[in-house]
Amino acid sequence: AQKITQTQPGMFVQEKEAVTLDCTYDTSDQSYGLFWYKQPSSGEMIFLIYQGSYDEQNATEGRYSLNFQKARKSANLVISASQLGDSAMYFCAMREEYGNKLVFGAGTILRVKS
Amino acid sequence: DTGVSQDPRHKITKRGQNVTFRCDPISEHNRLYWYRQTLGQGPEFLTYFQNEAQLEKSRLLSDRFSAERPKGSFSTLEIQRTEQGDSAMYLCASSRQTTNEKLFFGSGTQLSVL
Questions:
Q1: What is the mean pLDDT of chain A?
Q2: Predicted local confidence at residue B60, as pLDDT
Q3: pLDDT digits (tens, 9 = 90+) for B39-71
Q4: How many angstroms separate the CA atoms of B84 and B49, rounded?
Q5: What's the average model confidence in pLDDT over A39-62?
Q6: Which of B40, B56, B108 faces A43 most closely, judged by CB atoms?
Q7: Do B105 and A101 touch (CB under 8 A)?
Q8: Which residue(s) pair with A13 in the sheet?
Q9: Are B48 and A100 within 8 A, CB to CB?
């Protein structure tokens, strides 16, 4: 079974608007971590935001916030005030309780329009 | 941090040749990971080191693949008798040994097997 599912292959957003990128995950562990990474065309994976399964508050990092709904097993990334430089591939990933590695979804490509 | 560096950035080889990639992690990181990424997909886990010990290998890592981290610092990934299906981006990442520590990625080595 897919551990991480990103159902949106591609998204468009108007500059300065907010956009939500979807991520659902599958685990039977009680303790796990969820990560979002950005991969621009240059190829490097850039860490954006982290949410622990026991964190009571949704994580925020600048213009990035994570809408964590534990019962629904979803961890959607919200980007506010989109900028042209946000155009990139975005990956959701999970590390399970006794896992050492991150498992990634297939990604969502985001295009910001001016 | 000087970041994770990978060498070479690009490698073109003929089918059947051997290739070796190098990864230099962030100096204080004792965990090192190799991932493979094909076009339009998320990174797939290959193998993981803690210091010099290789603690986990994916079933994706066939007998033609070998990775080493001899002194717990840099790592090499060798592919013997390359096949066209090996064409991909090979990403290296490192992290500290703390719970749910984020991974820092290098820019990757793009392998093309002709």
A1: 94
A2: 80
A3: 989 999 999 999 999 999 998 888 999 999 998
A4: 27
A5: 94
A6: B108
A7: no
A8: A112
A9: yes
Neighbours of B27 (CB within 10 A): 9
Spell out which residues of chain B touch residue A33, defining contact as CB-CB under 8 Å: 99-100
Is omega for the bond preceding B8 within 30 degrees of 0, making it cis? yes
Rounded-to-integer distance, Cα A61 and Cα B89, Å: 28
The chain-wide mean pLDDT, for chain B, equals 93
The radius of gyration of chain A from alpha carbons, rounded to an integer in Å, stands at 14
Q: Is the dihedral of CA A60, A73, B59, B30 positive or negative?
A: positive
Cα dihedral sign for B32, B20, A93, A79? positive
Residues of B in contact with A106 (CB under 8 A): 40-42
Q: Which residues of B touch A95 (CB under 8 A)?
A: 100
Res. A109 pLDDT band, cuts 50 70 90: very high
Q: How far off is chain A from B15, nearest CA to CA, in Å?
A: 25
Higher pLDDT among residues A61 and A99, named by residue: A61
